[in-house]
Amino acid sequence: MNKALMEQLELEKRKREILKEAQNNKKQKEDAAEKISSSKVENRYVYEDSLDQESSRKFAWEYELERYRRDKLKDRFYLIGMVCGILALILTLYFNASEWLLWF
Predict the structure, then answer these.
(1) Model pTM score
(2) What is the pLDDT along the chain (104 residues), one digit of tens a residue?
(3) Backbone φ, ψ for residue 40 (5° rounding)
């Protein structure tokens, strides 16, 4: 139980760090875009294409964040399924107990 709690806290800490890095990267991209737009370049389409390519690529932290969210949803799904299964077993035992007692 303690290990699972520590892992959850570590994931939350990593999530906060990733979000901070994302904000910093976004600011850096905006600054770079402003510098490019302010400078007079003969062939500005080359720079626009490179910016489009950068924005379409995903960084490692984005993949890790997606995987973390997917795993969290999957864990919730398993927990809900487990609770429903146990509840169904208990209700089945409760409502069919009279039939089983007739067999003995």
Answers:
(1) 0.40
(2) 577 778 888 888 888 888 888 888 887 777 777 766 666 555 555 566 666 666 667 778 888 888 899 999 999 999 999 999 999 999 999 999 888 777 76
(3) -90, 110
Tell me, what DSSP letter sits at residue 57? S
Residue holding tokens 């890790």?
64
Based on the domain organization, do 51 and 98 belong to the same domain? no
Domain of 85, in residue numbers = 58-104
Are the beta carbons of 18 and 61 closer than 8 angstroms?
A: yes
The answer to whether residues 75 and 99 belong to one domain is yes
Domain count, the chain: 2
C-alpha triplet 74, 3, 61: angle, nearest 5°:
55
